[in-house]
Design a protein that fits this description.
The structure holds two protein chains of two kinds. By secondary structure, chain A is an alpha/beta fold. Chain A is built from seven helices and 19 strands. In chain A, a hairpin with a 2-residue loop joins β14 and β15. The longest helix of chain A has 23 residues. Chain A is elongated and about 70 Å long. By secondary structure, chain B is of the alpha/beta class. Helix content of chain B is 43%, strand content 9%. Chain B has 18 helices and ten strands. A four-stranded parallel sheet of chain B has the order 2-1-3-4, sandwiched between helices. The longest helix of chain B has 18 residues. The radius of gyration of chain B is 21 Å and the shape is globular. Chain B starts with 29 loop residues before the first helix and ends with a helix. Classes of the chains: A alpha/beta, B alpha/beta. Chains A and B meet through β14 and β15 of A and α1 of B.
Chain lengths: 359, 382
């Protein structure tokens, strides 16, 4: 297992030999982790990423709030490691067009920069990540049709560009959790499960607003607070800073007489409240990527009832031998630290699989 | 992991475990927040579910205040059918006369139709009818509303007459079916015995008539025949769908009024028919259609259902609805349900000096009949 994989152009009959290598589909943080780990172990990896840059959703929602990572773009450190390693081939803006052979050694065709490339790989890691939920599907919140609504991704972007709509005159900012998560309404095509990253994001953003503008009333409307990955400290700090938590799922956001109104049953106080707000932030969750189902079917990989890739043996094995999955593409949406751990686990599983073939 | 298939609400007939309908509730309170009754009272579906799961019996107020408008079900993340939970509980509870509006006359009439008379309702309409036709029309209970509701300026009979006029204008001679009440209200107050008997009678009559299409003007009839009856091949059509299908065959008089449309819960949230009435209204020449602030899936109920308790709170909901309609700038509020038509007109006619609503309520079929030109008879005259 020494030679770097050669991408053989379609139609050109070039002699090739199969290297003990790995094809990684996806460009999210778990894919980066798996790729850099494998490259460091000397395994040639080809990373097929459908978007134009690596990093997936971490490019917008880039923060992992555990103390090591605050204010650091995590994906960048992995990018550096990958770019400097000759074992890694990165294909951005590339699409899997065909899976010719769906058992090891796998054979796939990839469209990249106008040409079709054939890739042969002993192992595959599926790490497509997740698709942010389209908040405009929640008709009752009218995202995209009335002013004054943002998603946590919009707000994170605004923070980065320093153009948030919040200033000294702002009176109230309301965060709505579980927007597009934990709902079984079929027409929404939302995530029936907890998306697990959004509580942390929303609380962190609420805290940030409260710290910057102490006079702004910041309210979080939640069903349950789930600070996955040891982030309870954020929740504690937010309450200490004066962020107000109201339990309930708002039923309506609407502009009435030019005022942005949000309706909720405060189930703690058993009180129906219709609050005016200057800004309503929807903590959107994640859903499976649109091409995920097809890729899984092409590799003969089973899906869960929620259309994520099914893990048949924890933590990263799928139903097809030699195909592994990690991050938000499998089982459900995950936060960054979980995705990172799974990326590492997938790299290890691939290494073990290749070692067993050698015997 | 959540199994999405499991979330389908418990089936209607499983009386054995009513609580199964609500057991998956995770108490988010969205139902209460969106409930039209909650906006005018302390009614709290979330707390009712919680209390029921703790083993408490539902009070009569819990049971009668629910409008069964399905606004909660429409938005519930767990798809819990609270209206059905209420209906199942009504079936095992004795409701008293004071729990109903108009001294319960309309529910008594259903029971009367069930037991006392052999035939269906008799109708007297003008126009061309054909008892052999495969296209049938059933006006519903509108003649009873004329008789028992004390409304001066509201003509219920005209709803049926207009529907027949429209059919005649298109060259259709309908078979005017003499059915008993569809039983919608009996079903929703939990009187399963009455409902079953009415359904049995009507099903038999409809099948005997050998019709292919049954047209109704009332959203409740439409929902009941379509969802609760088993009529196999007979196509049930609401007047709005009938008109939308034939939108191009109409010509309209010039008219410059502004209209708004109220989605009845049985037609909208129950049967998901939002487009047909809008298609009809958009096609009327010169008329401008504006939407209510809360429309389609989020349209607020007219305030009363199944003739249960009509009190100050019901009136408050109705007045809010009129307010909402007036604020759109429309001069006419169009409805697609004879019940909404009755309730909203009732509060409109009961004009208190402080309530002056510059708006009229019109049933969809009646409006189209008024504004459309009878091409067939004009051609005949020529």
């Amino acid at each position: 297992m020494s030679t770097k994989i050669k991408n053989i152009a379609n139609g050109v009959k070039e002699a090739y030999y199969i290297t003990n290598n790995c094809l990684i589909i996806g460009g999210e943080i778990a894919a980066l982790r798996a790729a850099s780990d494998l490259a460091a172990l000397g395994i040639p990896v080809t990373l097929v990423n459908s978007s134009k840059e690596l990093g997936g959703n971490t490019k917008i929602l880039q923060k992992d709030f555990s103390e090591n990572f605050i204010n650091k773009d995590i994906h960048e450190s992995y990018l550096e490691a990958l770019e400097s390693n000759p074992q890694a081939t990165i294909l951005n803006n590339a699409q899997i067009t065909k899976v010719v052979q769906n058992h090891s050694p796998f054979e796939v065709e990839v469209q990249h920069e106008g040409t079709i490339q054939k890739i042969i790989a002993r192992t595959v890691i599926l790490a497509m990540g997740f698709e942010p939920f389209d908040a405009s599907k929640l008709r009752e919140y009218r995202y995209g049709t009335i002013d004054g609504l943002m998603t946590i991704a919009d707000l994170e972007d605004a923070f980065k560009k320093k153009n948030t709509p919040i200033n000294e005159k702002t009176e109230r900012v309301v965060f709505v959790l579980c927007a597009g998560s934990r709902t079984l309404r079929k027409e929404l095509k939302a995530n029936p499960d907890c998306s697990s990253f959004c509580c942390n994001y929303a609380i962190n953003q609420a805290l940030r607003i409260k710290k910057e503008f102490p006079d702004v009333e910041v309210i979080l409307m939640y069903m349950d607070i789930r600070t996955m990955g040891n982030h309870e400290f954020l929740y504690n700090e937010a309450r200490r800073a004066g962020v107000l938590f109201i339990r309930g799922r708002p039923s309506m956001v609407n502009r009435i007489n030019s005022e942005l109104m949000i309706d909720i049953e405060n189930s703690l106080a058993r009180k129906y409240e219709s609050l005016s707000a200057d800004l309503v932030v929807l903590a959107i969750g994640g859903i499976p990527t649109p091409n995920g189902e097809k890729i899984a079917a092409d590799f003969g990989v089973q899906l869960t009832s929620n259309k994520f890739i099914k893990i048949t043996e924890k933590p990263v094995k799928t139903s097809t031998p030699g195909v592994f999955a990690c991050g938000s593409a499998c089982e459900g949406v995950k936060n960054i630290s979980q995705s990172l751990s799974e990326g590492g686990a997938a790299a290890m599983a691939v290494f073990k699989f290749l070692k067993e073939i050698e015997k | 992991m959540i199994d999405t298939e499991k979330a389908i609400p418990a089936m209607k007939s499983s009386n054995s475990d009513i609580l199964a309908i609500v057991r998956e509730c995770f108490q988010c309170g969205l139902c209460t927040s969106i409930c039209p009754q909650r906006k005018v009272s302390k009614y709290n579906p979330r707390a009712i579910i919680h209390s029921a799961l703790r083993g408490n019996k539902l009070t009569n107020n819990d049971l009668t205040d629910c409008l069964t408008c399905r606004q909660c079900l429409e938005n519930c993340p767990q798809m819990i059918d609270f209206p059905d939970f209420i209906r199942e509980n009504r079936a095992i509870t004795v409701l008293k006369e004071e729990d109903f509006a108009h001294h319960n006359i309309f529910n008594l009439l259903q029971i009367f139709m069930r037991d006392m008379i052999e035939s269906g309702m008799k109708f007297e309409y003008e126009g061309e009818m054909d008892s052999e036709s495969g296209f049938a029309y059933f006006p519903g209970c509108i003649d009873l509303f004329d008789r028992f509701l004390d409304l001066q300026n509201t003509n219920f009979h005209q709803i049926g007459q207009s529907a027949i006029n429209l059919m005649n204008k298109m060259g259709i001679k309908p078979n005017l079916l003499s059915l008993k009440c569809c039983g919608h209200d009996a079903y929703w107050v939990g009187d399963n015995e009455t409902f079953d008997k009415l359904r049995e009678y009507n099903t038999q009559k409809i099948k005997e008539a050998g019709i292919s299409t049954l047209l109704v003007s009332c959203a409740e009839c439409y929902y009941t025949f379509e969802e609760l009856y088993d009529l196999n091949d007979v196509k049930i059509q609401h007047i709005s769908q009938f008109l939308a299908e034939r939108q191009n065959t109409f010509t309209f008089k010039e008219n410059n009024s502004v209209l708004t449309y109220h989605d009845p819960c049985r037609l909208g949230r129950f049967m998901k028919e939002y487009d047909a009435p809008r298609t009809v209204l958009d096609n009327i020449l010169g008329v401008k259609k504006v939407e209510l602030a809360y429309n389609k899936e989020n349209c607020i109920c007219c305030g009363v259902s199944a003739w249960l308790k009509c009190d100050d709170r019901s009136r408050a909901i109705m007045l809010q609805k009129l307010d909402e309609a007036v604020q759109t700038g429309a001069s006419t509020l169009v409805v697609g349900c004879t019940k909404c038509f009755a309730h909203l007109n009732c509060v409109l006619e009961d004009r208190k000096p402080q309530h002056q609503y510059p708006i009229q309520i019109k049933e969809l079929g009646t409006l189209v009949d008024e504004l459309s030109i009878d091409k067939l008879s004009e051609d005949a005259e020529k």
